[in-house]
Design goal:
This protein is an alpha/beta fold. It has one domain (11-242): 3-Layer(aba) Sandwich (Rossmann fold). 46% of the residues lie in helices and 14% in strands. The protein is built from eight helices and seven strands, in the order βαβαβαβαβαβααβα. Keywords: Oxidoreductase. Pfam families: adh_short.
Length: 248
């Protein structure tokens, strides 16, 4: 069953809110009437520009998704949150036979997959209390298709996508919508790191897509041109396997 969620007049929390897709999500949420957005970052000074621009509508909040204690401390402050966007992530260039592949995968799993688990476990009681609510997870087309030079990143995002599916089943009965976002190359530092800036699309396509997909009650969002190519091939599988009730 689809769960529609309108960002207007809601309190949001966005990890990695100081730049890239996270910053664009903050801007889009506020443009669509969000009451307040917690800017969840590792360096509070990095939010000065957003605070100067939006004033009391934003609230800097210290969160390091690799640290469970940091997340739990933040959850004791942000008790009014109604939507959590888990955007913070890390990418390492690592093919499977690279010497540093194991170290890269360990770091990426810690942030991209375990970070999601930590955020969900800490904030689910708050979202349930303040519901109807939503949890948004930034995954990637790399969660569906492994790219050799990004093998460990792809593996970490595949793990995060699997966890996101589990959260959809677990949080639905708690009146918490879950949205899994699968961008292709987006114009961020991460795209530059992966050498994909020439085909990258603006961060706004992801941010606007999140607002639209939450309102539509969708589980998957493929926001850009490359992602929509994936969606065209993947949609039948998603409808008949990922989102289907196979218990019937």
């Amino acid at each position: 069953m689809k769960m529609s969620f309108d960002i207007a007049n809601k309190v949001a929390l966005v990890t990695g809110a100081n730049r890239g897709i996270g910053k664009s999500i903050v801007e889009s949420f506020l443009a669509h009437g969000a009451k307040k957005v917690y800017l969840a970052v590792r360096d509070l000074d990095s939010t000065k520009e957003l605070v100067k621009q939006y004033g009391h509508k934003v609230s800097p909040l210290l969160i390091d998704v690799s640290n469970a204690q940091s997340i739990m401390a933040a959850a004791k402050i942000a008790t009014d949150v109604q939507v959590v966007v888990n955007n913070a992530g890390v990418l390492k260039i690592a093919a499977p036979l690279d010497e540093h592949a194991e170290a890269s995968l360990t770091e990426e799993l810690n942030i991209n997959a375990f970070g999601l688990l930590r955020m969900a476990q800490a904030f689910t009681p708050i979202l349930e209390k303040n519901g109807p609510a939503a949890l948004v997870q930034l995954n990637s087309v790399a969660s569906i298709k492994n790219f050799a030079a990004l093998t460990t990143y792809s593996a970490s995002k595949a793990a995060a996508y699997s966890i996101t599916q589990g959260l959809k089943e677990s949080l639905g009965p708690k009146n918490i919508a879950v949205l899994s976002v699968h961008p292709g190359p987006i114009n961020t530092d991460m795209a530059a790191q992966g050498g994909m800036t020439e085909i990258a699309e603006p961060t706004s396509v992801v941010a606007q897509g999140i607002v639209t997909s939450l309102k539509a009650g969708d589980f998957h969002l493929f926001p850009d041109a490359m992602a929509r190519d994936f969606q065209g091939a993947y949609q039948s599988y998603a409808d008949n396997i990922i989102e289907a009730d196979l218990s019937e």
